[in-house]
Design a protein that fits this description.
α12 (278-286) links the parallel β10 (271-274) and β11. The protein folds into two domains: 8-138 and 352-454, 3-Layer(aba) Sandwich (Rossmann fold), CATH 3.40.50; 147-344, Glycogen Phosphorylase B (Rossmann fold). Strands 6-5-4-3-1-2-14-13 form an eight-stranded mixed sheet, with helices on both faces. It has a six-stranded parallel sheet with strand order 9-8-7-10-11-12, sandwiched between helices. It is an alpha/beta fold and 455 residues long. The two termini are 37 Å apart. It contains 20 helices and 14 strands. 42% of the residues are buried. The chain is globular. It has helices spanning 16-32, 42-47, 67-75, 93-98, 102-105, 116-124, 139-142, 153-163, 194-226, 241-247, 262-268, 278-286, 304-308, 316-329, 338-344, 356-366, 368-373, 379-399, 408-414, 420-434, and strands at 8-13, 36-41, 55-59, 79-82, 110-113, 133-135, 166-170, 230-234, 254-256, 271-274, 290-293, 311-313, 440-446, 449-454.
Length: 455
Amino acid sequence: MSRHLPDHIVIPIETLNREFDGKLLLALCAHERGFKSIIGGRTEIHRRIADLPSSIYVSKGIRIGNRVALSLLHKLGHLIVALEEEGLVRFPDEAYFMMLDPKTFNRAAILYAWGHDNAELWRRFPAYRDTPIVEAGNPRMDMLRPELRDFYAADVTNLHRRFGRFVLFNTNFSVVNHFIPGFQRFRVAGHAEASKSDEIKSGIHRHKTVLFDHFRRLLPELSAALRPHNLVIRPHPSENLQAWKDAAQYLPNVHVLYEGPVAPWLMATSALVHNTCTSAIEAAILGTPALAYRPVRSDEYDVPLPNLVSEEFDTAESLCAAARDALDRNRKNGSLTEINRRHLDAHIAALDGALSCERIIDAIDRNRARLEARPMPGSVERLFGRFGVLARNVRRAATTRMTGRSSARYTEHKFPGLDEAYVNGRIARLSALLGRFEGLRARRLQSNIFTIGPT
Protein backbone atom coordinates (compact mmCIF):
# COMPACT_ATOMS: atom_id res chain seq x y z
CA MET A 1 0.00 0.00 0.00
CA SER A 2 1.45 3.40 -1.00
CA ARG A 3 1.35 6.45 1.22
CA HIS A 4 1.30 10.21 1.04
CA LEU A 5 3.94 12.10 2.96
CA PRO A 6 2.42 12.94 6.36
CA ASP A 7 1.83 16.61 7.02
CA HIS A 8 2.60 16.24 10.75
CA ILE A 9 6.09 16.05 12.22
CA VAL A 10 6.54 14.74 15.77
CA ILE A 11 9.66 15.84 17.67
CA PRO A 12 10.16 14.01 20.99
CA ILE A 13 12.52 15.24 23.72
CA GLU A 14 14.09 12.96 26.31
CA THR A 15 16.34 15.45 28.17
CA LEU A 16 14.77 18.89 28.47
CA ASN A 17 17.90 20.91 29.28
CA ARG A 18 19.95 19.31 26.51
CA GLU A 19 17.49 19.10 23.64
CA PHE A 20 14.55 21.45 23.99
CA ASP A 21 15.75 24.76 22.54
CA GLY A 22 17.29 23.22 19.42
CA LYS A 23 14.30 20.97 18.77
CA LEU A 24 11.87 23.85 19.31
CA LEU A 25 13.81 25.67 16.58
CA LEU A 26 13.40 22.55 14.41
CA ALA A 27 9.64 22.52 15.06
CA LEU A 28 9.40 26.18 14.02
CA CYS A 29 11.45 25.62 10.86
CA ALA A 30 9.27 22.63 10.00
CA HIS A 31 6.12 24.73 10.36
CA GLU A 32 7.59 27.32 7.99
CA ARG A 33 7.90 24.53 5.41
CA GLY A 34 4.30 23.42 5.69
CA PHE A 35 4.43 20.76 8.41
CA LYS A 36 2.18 20.70 11.47
CA SER A 37 4.70 20.41 14.29
CA ILE A 38 4.10 18.47 17.50
CA ILE A 39 6.80 18.68 20.19
CA GLY A 40 6.98 17.38 23.74
CA GLY A 41 8.37 14.92 26.25
CA ARG A 42 9.33 11.60 24.72
CA THR A 43 7.77 9.54 27.51
CA GLU A 44 4.41 11.25 27.15
CA ILE A 45 4.52 11.16 23.33
CA HIS A 46 5.24 7.42 23.39
CA ARG A 47 2.44 6.88 25.90
CA ARG A 48 -0.07 8.63 23.63
CA ILE A 49 1.43 7.82 20.22
CA ALA A 50 -1.57 5.71 19.13
CA ASP A 51 -3.78 8.80 19.50
CA LEU A 52 -1.52 11.15 17.53
CA PRO A 53 -1.93 11.60 13.75
CA SER A 54 0.35 9.70 11.36
CA SER A 55 3.57 11.65 11.22
CA ILE A 56 7.19 11.95 10.33
CA TYR A 57 8.70 10.98 13.67
CA VAL A 58 12.16 12.41 14.47
CA SER A 59 13.81 9.75 16.61
CA LYS A 60 16.69 10.76 18.86
CA GLY A 61 18.49 7.46 18.30
CA ILE A 62 18.60 4.15 16.45
CA ARG A 63 20.32 1.94 19.03
CA ILE A 64 18.91 -1.20 20.65
CA GLY A 65 17.24 0.84 23.42
CA ASN A 66 14.86 2.29 20.81
CA ARG A 67 13.79 -1.13 19.48
CA VAL A 68 10.32 -1.41 21.02
CA ALA A 69 9.29 2.22 20.48
CA LEU A 70 10.38 2.31 16.83
CA SER A 71 8.70 -1.03 16.13
CA LEU A 72 5.40 0.29 17.49
CA LEU A 73 5.74 3.55 15.57
CA HIS A 74 6.31 1.56 12.37
CA LYS A 75 3.21 -0.59 12.99
CA LEU A 76 1.12 2.53 13.58
CA GLY A 77 2.14 3.98 10.22
CA HIS A 78 4.58 6.70 11.31
CA LEU A 79 7.57 7.44 9.06
CA ILE A 80 10.76 7.40 11.10
CA VAL A 81 13.75 9.65 10.50
CA ALA A 82 16.56 9.60 13.02
CA LEU A 83 19.17 11.72 14.70
CA GLU A 84 21.72 10.09 17.00
CA GLU A 85 22.17 12.23 20.11
CA GLU A 86 25.07 10.05 21.29
CA GLY A 87 26.77 9.79 17.90
CA LEU A 88 29.36 12.55 18.39
CA VAL A 89 31.14 11.54 21.59
CA ARG A 90 30.61 7.82 21.68
CA PHE A 91 31.99 4.49 22.78
CA PRO A 92 34.70 2.89 20.59
CA ASP A 93 33.37 1.71 17.22
CA GLU A 94 33.37 -1.97 18.13
CA ALA A 95 31.32 -1.23 21.23
CA TYR A 96 29.02 1.14 19.34
CA PHE A 97 28.20 -1.52 16.72
CA MET A 98 27.26 -3.92 19.52
CA MET A 99 24.51 -1.46 20.50
CA LEU A 100 22.94 -1.48 17.01
CA ASP A 101 20.51 -4.16 16.02
CA PRO A 102 19.85 -4.37 12.25
CA LYS A 103 16.07 -4.12 12.35
CA THR A 104 15.99 -1.05 14.60
CA PHE A 105 18.83 0.63 12.71
CA ASN A 106 16.97 0.17 9.42
CA ARG A 107 13.63 1.49 10.68
CA ALA A 108 14.82 4.99 9.76
CA ALA A 109 13.98 6.28 6.28
CA ILE A 110 16.62 9.02 6.67
CA LEU A 111 19.63 9.04 9.01
CA TYR A 112 20.88 12.44 10.19
CA ALA A 113 24.58 12.28 11.04
CA TRP A 114 26.47 14.77 13.18
CA GLY A 115 29.03 15.03 10.39
CA HIS A 116 31.23 13.04 8.03
CA ASP A 117 32.81 10.88 10.74
CA ASN A 118 29.40 9.77 12.06
CA ALA A 119 28.15 9.16 8.50
CA GLU A 120 31.12 6.93 7.64
CA LEU A 121 30.65 5.01 10.89
CA TRP A 122 27.07 4.13 9.89
CA ARG A 123 28.16 3.12 6.38
CA ARG A 124 30.62 0.65 7.95
CA PHE A 125 27.88 -1.05 9.96
CA PRO A 126 27.44 -4.49 8.33
CA ALA A 127 23.63 -4.20 8.32
CA TYR A 128 23.55 -0.77 6.63
CA ARG A 129 21.15 -0.92 3.63
CA ASP A 130 21.79 2.24 1.66
CA THR A 131 19.46 4.46 3.72
CA PRO A 132 20.08 8.13 2.84
CA ILE A 133 22.58 9.59 5.32
CA VAL A 134 22.52 13.37 5.64
CA GLU A 135 25.39 15.20 7.31
CA ALA A 136 23.08 17.59 9.11
CA GLY A 137 24.79 18.38 12.41
CA ASN A 138 22.42 18.64 15.34
CA PRO A 139 19.82 21.27 16.33
CA ARG A 140 21.43 21.76 19.73
CA MET A 141 24.58 23.03 17.98
CA ASP A 142 22.47 25.59 16.08
CA MET A 143 21.87 27.28 19.43
CA LEU A 144 25.65 27.89 19.80
CA ARG A 145 26.00 29.74 16.49
CA PRO A 146 26.78 33.49 16.70
CA GLU A 147 23.37 34.51 15.37
CA LEU A 148 21.60 32.66 18.19
CA ARG A 149 23.87 33.19 21.22
CA ASP A 150 21.91 36.18 22.48
CA PHE A 151 19.05 33.74 23.09
CA TYR A 152 20.85 33.06 26.39
CA ALA A 153 21.99 36.62 27.19
CA ALA A 154 19.68 37.08 30.17
CA ASP A 155 20.66 33.65 31.55
CA VAL A 156 24.36 34.53 31.32
CA THR A 157 23.77 37.80 33.17
CA ASN A 158 21.87 35.93 35.89
CA LEU A 159 24.68 33.38 36.31
CA HIS A 160 27.26 36.15 36.68
CA ARG A 161 25.06 37.79 39.30
CA ARG A 162 24.72 34.53 41.25
CA PHE A 163 28.26 33.18 41.01
CA GLY A 164 30.53 36.03 39.89
CA ARG A 165 33.58 34.60 38.17
CA PHE A 166 33.54 30.84 38.31
CA VAL A 167 34.97 27.68 36.79
CA LEU A 168 32.54 25.03 35.54
CA PHE A 169 33.15 21.32 35.96
CA ASN A 170 30.87 19.15 33.79
CA THR A 171 30.92 15.52 34.88
CA ASN A 172 30.56 12.49 32.63
CA PHE A 173 30.36 9.46 34.91
CA SER A 174 26.89 8.00 34.47
CA VAL A 175 28.51 4.63 33.68
CA VAL A 176 29.59 4.37 37.34
CA ASN A 177 27.39 6.98 39.05
CA HIS A 178 23.97 6.59 37.45
CA PHE A 179 20.86 8.34 38.75
CA ILE A 180 19.30 4.89 39.27
CA PRO A 181 21.58 3.03 41.74
CA GLY A 182 23.24 0.01 40.16
CA PHE A 183 21.97 0.81 36.67
CA GLN A 184 24.46 0.12 33.85
CA ARG A 185 24.07 1.89 30.51
CA PHE A 186 25.82 -0.59 28.16
CA ARG A 187 22.95 -2.38 26.41
CA VAL A 188 23.91 -4.58 23.46
CA ALA A 189 22.00 -6.19 20.59
CA GLY A 190 21.47 -9.92 20.20
CA HIS A 191 24.25 -10.33 17.64
CA ALA A 192 26.93 -9.12 20.09
CA GLU A 193 29.35 -11.77 21.31
CA ALA A 194 28.70 -12.03 25.05
CA SER A 195 32.33 -12.51 26.10
CA LYS A 196 33.49 -9.54 24.02
CA SER A 197 30.69 -7.23 25.17
CA ASP A 198 31.37 -8.20 28.80
CA GLU A 199 35.06 -7.43 28.28
CA ILE A 200 34.33 -3.99 26.84
CA LYS A 201 31.70 -3.20 29.45
CA SER A 202 33.99 -4.14 32.33
CA GLY A 203 36.91 -2.26 30.74
CA ILE A 204 34.88 0.94 30.38
CA HIS A 205 33.56 0.52 33.92
CA ARG A 206 37.06 0.06 35.41
CA HIS A 207 38.45 3.06 33.54
CA LYS A 208 35.55 5.32 34.51
CA THR A 209 35.73 4.20 38.15
CA VAL A 210 39.39 5.21 38.39
CA LEU A 211 38.65 8.59 36.80
CA PHE A 212 35.63 9.12 39.05
CA ASP A 213 37.79 8.59 42.11
CA HIS A 214 40.47 10.96 40.79
CA PHE A 215 37.97 13.73 40.17
CA ARG A 216 36.42 13.44 43.62
CA ARG A 217 39.88 13.64 45.17
CA LEU A 218 40.60 16.68 42.97
CA LEU A 219 37.79 18.79 44.43
CA PRO A 220 39.45 20.06 47.66
CA GLU A 221 42.60 21.09 45.77
CA LEU A 222 40.67 22.75 42.95
CA SER A 223 38.37 24.49 45.44
CA ALA A 224 41.37 25.92 47.30
CA ALA A 225 43.05 27.05 44.08
CA LEU A 226 39.97 29.00 42.97
CA ARG A 227 39.08 30.63 46.30
CA PRO A 228 37.46 33.12 46.85
CA HIS A 229 35.85 32.45 43.47
CA ASN A 230 33.44 29.61 42.81
CA LEU A 231 33.54 26.16 41.29
CA VAL A 232 30.22 24.95 39.87
CA ILE A 233 29.80 21.21 39.36
CA ARG A 234 27.16 20.36 36.77
CA PRO A 235 26.56 16.58 36.76
CA HIS A 236 25.67 14.71 33.58
CA PRO A 237 21.85 14.46 33.13
CA SER A 238 21.98 10.73 33.94
CA GLU A 239 24.16 11.06 37.05
CA ASN A 240 23.42 10.93 40.75
CA LEU A 241 23.96 14.46 42.11
CA GLN A 242 24.32 13.23 45.68
CA ALA A 243 27.72 11.63 45.05
CA TRP A 244 29.10 15.04 44.06
CA LYS A 245 27.32 16.83 46.91
CA ASP A 246 28.93 14.41 49.34
CA ALA A 247 32.36 15.03 47.81
CA ALA A 248 31.89 18.82 48.05
CA GLN A 249 30.08 19.08 51.37
CA TYR A 250 32.92 20.85 53.26
CA LEU A 251 33.92 23.12 50.37
CA PRO A 252 31.93 26.38 50.68
CA ASN A 253 32.86 27.75 47.25
CA VAL A 254 31.77 24.56 45.44
CA HIS A 255 28.17 24.33 44.18
CA VAL A 256 26.56 21.19 42.76
CA LEU A 257 23.49 21.79 40.63
CA TYR A 258 21.85 20.68 37.42
CA GLU A 259 19.65 23.39 35.96
CA GLY A 260 18.90 24.89 32.58
CA PRO A 261 20.67 24.34 29.25
CA VAL A 262 24.45 24.04 29.32
CA ALA A 263 25.04 26.83 26.77
CA PRO A 264 24.65 29.83 29.13
CA TRP A 265 26.86 28.10 31.70
CA LEU A 266 29.58 27.67 29.09
CA MET A 267 29.19 31.31 28.03
CA ALA A 268 29.36 32.57 31.62
CA THR A 269 32.23 30.46 32.94
CA SER A 270 35.91 31.44 32.77
CA ALA A 271 36.88 27.85 31.91
CA LEU A 272 35.45 24.34 31.65
CA VAL A 273 37.00 21.35 33.45
CA HIS A 274 36.04 17.94 32.05
CA ASN A 275 37.13 14.49 30.95
CA THR A 276 35.87 13.21 27.59
CA CYS A 277 32.70 15.30 27.67
CA THR A 278 30.61 16.70 24.80
CA SER A 279 30.54 20.03 26.63
CA ALA A 280 34.22 20.50 25.70
CA ILE A 281 33.18 20.59 22.04
CA GLU A 282 30.39 23.04 22.84
CA ALA A 283 32.88 25.17 24.79
CA ALA A 284 35.27 25.15 21.82
CA ILE A 285 32.50 26.40 19.51
CA LEU A 286 31.81 29.22 21.97
CA GLY A 287 35.49 30.08 22.43
CA THR A 288 35.54 29.10 26.11
CA PRO A 289 38.77 27.45 27.37
CA ALA A 290 38.33 23.71 27.98
CA LEU A 291 40.70 21.99 30.42
CA ALA A 292 40.81 18.19 30.18
CA TYR A 293 41.99 16.50 33.38
CA ARG A 294 43.50 13.15 32.38
CA PRO A 295 45.24 11.57 35.40
CA VAL A 296 44.90 8.17 33.72
CA ARG A 297 44.56 7.46 30.01
CA SER A 298 43.23 4.60 27.92
CA ASP A 299 43.76 4.13 24.21
CA GLU A 300 40.75 1.79 24.20
CA TYR A 301 38.18 3.74 26.20
CA ASP A 302 39.01 7.45 25.97
CA VAL A 303 37.21 9.37 23.20
CA PRO A 304 39.75 11.60 21.41
CA LEU A 305 37.61 14.47 20.10
CA PRO A 306 36.81 16.36 23.36
CA ASN A 307 40.49 16.20 24.31
CA LEU A 308 41.63 17.45 20.90
CA VAL A 309 39.79 20.73 21.45
CA SER A 310 41.07 21.08 25.03
CA GLU A 311 44.27 21.77 26.90
CA GLU A 312 45.25 18.52 28.64
CA PHE A 313 46.64 18.00 32.16
CA ASP A 314 47.97 14.87 33.83
CA THR A 315 48.29 16.18 37.39
CA ALA A 316 45.96 17.91 39.80
CA GLU A 317 48.59 20.59 40.43
CA SER A 318 48.89 21.58 36.76
CA LEU A 319 45.10 21.48 36.22
CA CYS A 320 44.47 23.68 39.26
CA ALA A 321 47.10 26.21 38.15
CA ALA A 322 45.55 26.42 34.68
CA ALA A 323 42.04 26.81 36.07
CA ARG A 324 43.17 29.59 38.38
CA ASP A 325 44.98 31.32 35.54
CA ALA A 326 41.89 31.14 33.32
CA LEU A 327 39.81 32.55 36.17
CA ASP A 328 42.21 35.44 36.76
CA ARG A 329 42.51 36.31 33.08
CA ASN A 330 38.86 35.64 32.21
CA ARG A 331 39.76 36.11 28.55
CA LYS A 332 37.58 34.36 26.02
CA ASN A 333 37.64 35.03 22.33
CA GLY A 334 33.99 34.06 21.91
CA SER A 335 34.54 32.14 18.71
CA LEU A 336 35.86 28.87 17.37
CA THR A 337 39.63 28.99 16.85
CA GLU A 338 41.11 27.92 13.52
CA ILE A 339 42.85 24.90 15.04
CA ASN A 340 39.69 23.71 16.78
CA ARG A 341 37.71 24.28 13.58
CA ARG A 342 40.07 21.88 11.81
CA HIS A 343 39.51 19.30 14.55
CA LEU A 344 35.72 19.62 14.31
CA ASP A 345 35.17 19.94 10.55
CA ALA A 346 34.97 16.19 9.96
CA HIS A 347 32.73 15.67 12.98
CA ILE A 348 30.11 18.44 13.01
CA ALA A 349 28.22 19.80 10.02
CA ALA A 350 26.25 23.08 10.02
CA LEU A 351 28.69 25.13 12.10
CA ASP A 352 27.96 27.77 9.47
CA GLY A 353 25.81 28.04 6.35
CA ALA A 354 22.32 26.54 6.56
CA LEU A 355 21.17 25.66 10.06
CA SER A 356 21.08 22.00 11.07
CA CYS A 357 17.30 22.39 11.48
CA GLU A 358 16.98 23.57 7.88
CA ARG A 359 19.15 20.72 6.58
CA ILE A 360 16.88 18.23 8.36
CA ILE A 361 13.76 19.59 6.67
CA ASP A 362 15.55 19.96 3.31
CA ALA A 363 16.38 16.25 3.37
CA ILE A 364 12.72 15.33 3.86
CA ASP A 365 11.80 17.41 0.81
CA ARG A 366 14.62 15.90 -1.28
CA ASN A 367 13.65 12.35 -0.35
CA ARG A 368 9.89 12.80 -0.67
CA ALA A 369 9.51 10.14 -3.39
CA ARG A 370 11.58 7.65 -1.43
CA LEU A 371 9.59 8.29 1.76
CA GLU A 372 6.26 7.90 -0.03
CA ALA A 373 7.44 4.62 -1.55
CA ARG A 374 7.91 3.00 1.86
CA PRO A 375 5.09 0.48 2.43
CA MET A 376 2.22 1.35 4.73
CA PRO A 377 1.26 -1.14 7.45
CA GLY A 378 -2.06 -2.87 6.92
CA SER A 379 -5.05 -2.59 9.23
CA VAL A 380 -4.14 -5.75 11.16
CA GLU A 381 -0.59 -4.52 11.77
CA ARG A 382 -1.96 -1.15 12.92
CA LEU A 383 -4.28 -2.94 15.33
CA PHE A 384 -1.33 -4.89 16.73
CA GLY A 385 0.49 -1.56 17.06
CA ARG A 386 -2.34 -0.08 19.15
CA PHE A 387 -2.44 -3.16 21.39
CA GLY A 388 1.35 -2.97 21.66
CA VAL A 389 1.22 0.63 22.90
CA LEU A 390 -1.43 -0.30 25.46
CA ALA A 391 0.64 -3.26 26.69
CA ARG A 392 3.79 -1.15 26.86
CA ASN A 393 2.01 1.53 28.88
CA VAL A 394 0.77 -1.08 31.38
CA ARG A 395 4.22 -2.65 31.63
CA ARG A 396 5.99 0.69 32.09
CA ALA A 397 3.49 1.78 34.74
CA ALA A 398 4.68 -1.22 36.76
CA THR A 399 8.42 -1.15 36.01
CA THR A 400 8.85 2.57 36.72
CA ARG A 401 8.11 1.74 40.36
CA MET A 402 10.84 -0.93 40.48
CA THR A 403 14.24 0.25 41.66
CA GLY A 404 16.95 -1.13 39.38
CA ARG A 405 14.65 -1.46 36.36
CA SER A 406 13.46 2.06 35.72
CA SER A 407 12.46 5.13 37.65
CA ALA A 408 9.70 7.70 37.34
CA ARG A 409 11.95 10.07 39.31
CA TYR A 410 14.68 9.65 36.68
CA THR A 411 12.26 10.54 33.88
CA GLU A 412 11.07 13.59 35.83
CA HIS A 413 14.67 14.61 36.50
CA LYS A 414 15.45 14.62 32.79
CA PHE A 415 12.11 16.07 31.70
CA PRO A 416 10.48 17.91 34.62
CA GLY A 417 7.65 19.31 32.51
CA LEU A 418 6.60 22.29 30.40
CA ASP A 419 3.80 24.79 30.20
CA GLU A 420 2.62 27.04 27.38
CA ALA A 421 4.12 30.19 28.90
CA TYR A 422 7.62 28.67 28.95
CA VAL A 423 7.40 27.36 25.39
CA ASN A 424 5.97 30.60 24.03
CA GLY A 425 8.57 32.67 25.83
CA ARG A 426 11.28 30.76 24.01
CA ILE A 427 9.47 31.04 20.68
CA ALA A 428 9.38 34.81 21.20
CA ARG A 429 13.16 34.87 21.82
CA LEU A 430 13.87 32.88 18.66
CA SER A 431 11.53 35.06 16.61
CA ALA A 432 13.18 38.27 17.83
CA LEU A 433 16.69 37.00 17.09
CA LEU A 434 16.06 35.54 13.65
CA GLY A 435 13.26 37.77 12.38
CA ARG A 436 11.22 34.66 11.62
CA PHE A 437 8.26 32.70 13.04
CA GLU A 438 6.07 35.78 13.48
CA GLY A 439 2.67 34.89 14.88
CA LEU A 440 3.57 31.30 15.78
CA ARG A 441 2.58 30.02 19.21
CA ALA A 442 2.55 26.76 21.11
CA ARG A 443 -0.76 25.25 22.18
CA ARG A 444 -0.98 22.43 24.70
CA LEU A 445 -2.43 19.21 23.27
CA GLN A 446 -1.83 16.95 26.26
CA SER A 447 0.38 17.05 29.34
CA ASN A 448 3.89 17.97 28.06
CA ILE A 449 2.81 17.76 24.38
CA PHE A 450 2.37 20.90 22.28
CA THR A 451 1.49 21.82 18.73
CA ILE A 452 3.02 24.82 16.96
CA GLY A 453 0.79 27.05 14.85
CA PRO A 454 -0.52 30.54 14.19
CA THR A 455 -1.83 32.56 17.10
